[in-house]
Task: inverse folding
């Protein structure tokens, strides 16, 4: 499975502009999947900011508490250096 994912990443990195990325992601992901990815990114951003509780994030962005808990647990078990690196990437 790793080889297949690497192939996807290569295709993403090959796209010359945002419009090409939009076309590729519309091909590869359903609207629901794109929404889920966007929601997960928002959850990680909000958790890393630390300004809202999990319940507030769920209400504000209409994201399930289960998704928020999974993201929170992932961050909690991550080394500080990795968390800082991710924060730099997505903020």
Result:
């Amino acid at each position: 499975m790793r080889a297949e994912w690497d192939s996807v990443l290569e295709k993403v990195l090959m796209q010359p502009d945002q419009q090409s990325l939009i076309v590729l992601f519309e091909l590869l992901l359903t609207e629901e999947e794109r929404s889920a990815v966007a929601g997960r990114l928002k959850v990680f951003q909000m958790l890393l900011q630390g300004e809202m509780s999990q319940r507030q994030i769920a209400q504000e962005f209409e994201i399930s508490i289960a998704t928020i808990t999974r993201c929170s647990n992932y961050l909690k078990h991550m080394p500080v250096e990795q968390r800082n690196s991710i924060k730099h990437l997505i903020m």
Remarks:
- The radius of gyration is 15 Å.
- Residues 40 and 67 are 7 Å apart (CA to CA).
- The mean pLDDT is 95.
- The chain has six helices and no strands.
